[in-house]
Amino acid sequence: MPYRLGWMGGVAFLFMGWLVFAYSSEHKQGDGKRDVAPVENALYRAECGSCHLAYPPGLLPSRSWEKILSGLEEHFGENAELSGELRVELEDYLRKHGADQSSYRRSQKIAASIPAQQMPLRISETAYFRHEHGEHRLVKIPGSGEKISVSRCEQCHPRAEQGFFDEHKLRISSRNR
Amino acid sequence: MQGRSCFFSLAWMLLFALFLVEAEAAVVEELLNRYQEQGAGPFNAQRGERLYRQPGTGDEGSRCAECHAEDPRKVGKHVRTGKEIAPLSPQVNPERLQDAAKVEKWFLRNCKGSLGRECTPQEKGDFLRYLTTAR
User: Fold this and answer.
1) How many other CB atoms are there within 10 angstroms of residue B107's CB atom?
2) Helix residue spans in B38-99 (DSSP H)
3) Nearest CA-CA partner of A167 in A106, A99, A113
4) Cβ–Cβ of A79/B109 closer than 8 Å?
5) SS3 for A114?
6) In chain A, domain spans
7) Where are the beta strands (DSSP E) in chain B?
8) What is the distance between the alpha carbons of residues B27 and B96, in angstroms, rounded to a whole number?
9) ipTM score above 0.90
10) How do residues A135-160 score in pLDDT, each as one tens digit?
11) What is the pTM of this model?
């Protein structure tokens, strides 16, 4: 009996070791929180990911997200209005996950780069973004030469929804200025 | 023994498939009934197709078919964002017309976007007829 317990204890020990390993490597995958938190909310992904990529909330401060949600009837030329209930739920998610609430380093940098009185409605119009991408709204994907809106992050950052932007295998090789 | 469990799982799968088909029909039925209660009907697939292809109004209005592909059984592309849109036809995309609230939400948005106004119950019913029958 003591022997059997020891054997089972060993298995349990290994299992716990594996759990710890799996947990920590998962966190490594999050680049040790260097980049932006991934989108993990199913409602957000469905409601805000139907017309475009579900932008990770850590790309704009919470006050920006609240302003976006309060103007969905006139959303960049589209009608994106939502029922009150859904909006309240999304508001709650976005308020807690904006760049200024995040423990991810890039989000913190983004939050710090936007003056407190500003509420940008676009990620692509922040100084932080323009510093990386230039000023143009229409950009080429060099491989195909196709012109796309610079808001289509996922065309160049394939894992944008997972919060990865700092990748060396970007789909394109040169900057688009 | 194996043959038997195989038979049972097949039977379950069949039941499940039937259930899904039922569920889809149920949502469309429910919507059509609602439109009828609002005074619309009978519904006509050809009028629905005309709505799908008619030009949008104003500077920004796009035709339905511009975002959803000329053939609703094909993959579309959002005119403003370029994002792919899975086929609108429930005949090739079993996820379509499964949720009455979702259908109404997109009718509201897209009719305002395309036509500058909400669609009438008649137009919505015609359109659902078109989507469920177009070949």
Assistant:
1) 17
2) 45-53, 64-68
3) A106
4) yes
5) coil
6) 42-176
7) 76-77, 84-85
8) 10
9) no
10) 898 888 867 788 889 999 999 999 99
11) 0.83
